Amino acid sequence: MSSITQISWTDQTDNIIRAKVGGWWCHKKSEGCANCFAEKLNQNSFFGGNKQPYSGQPPELVLDTEAIRKWGFQRKPKKHFVSSMTDVFGEWVPRFWQHEMLDGMFVAPNQIFQILTKRPEIMLSSMDEWLSCHGLDKLPLNIWPGTSIENRRTLEERSQFLSKIPALIRFWSVEPLLEDLGDITHYLNDVQLVIIGGESGPNSRPCHIEWLESIVQQCQQSKTPVFVKQLGANAKLEGQRFKTRDKKGGNIEEFPEYLQVREFPFDA
Length: 268
Description:
Helix content is 24%, strand content 18%. The chain has a single domain, classed as pyruvate-formate lyase- activating enzyme, CATH 3.80.30. The chain is α/β, with parallel strands linked by helices. The chain is globular, with a radius of gyration of 18 Å. The model has no long low-confidence stretch (mean pLDDT 96). This is Phage Gp37/Gp68 family protein. It holds the Pfam family DUF5131.
């Protein structure tokens, strides 16, 4: 199931895995999942959700093979964020589903597929298997593997697995940014895009603009494309609330000038 999206770093979302009864399912993994927007949507039947929490045992799931098949027939190039409502590399997802997804991407070279996971160790293993089956030594240019990072712990844990995936473009989604990541210079050698943003929605945890600025500066020094998605709903500057008219802090015109940066690798 594809849909137009308000996510500024992509063109559309393709939720190819859903619950058979409707809605979606995922399993919360780390601190960044605490206020999961996908779980909130899934709690609301108005948005097509099934009201199941993102915990416990998964319901019966289905793979939208027709949506995957259609990728190869799309003429207009687009960036596809694959499965914004779940993690396609969750441990509950059959490995052959992941490979079927990659097969569909392989035959759609004009489309860019942004695959984001909080489980890059599974992504690495599954993609290695797929590459081996196809006799390839690296992913095609149109397949962008990425991992979510929210703090120093997840930076350490996840970046090491992502860096081992043989891809031309790997990316981080540093959202919600929950603390200062400190010196990330040596990590940036292994990533070709860094997306950053504060948390939005009710009970948003604070994101200090100084944390965002530090990442932007380090990316610029290392010539790594950086995309500032949003300041978040609880942005702070010098310890004080930084108010924006946009409730997510996502209007780039309201950013401090030094954060008005939205870059992609290779002008994608």
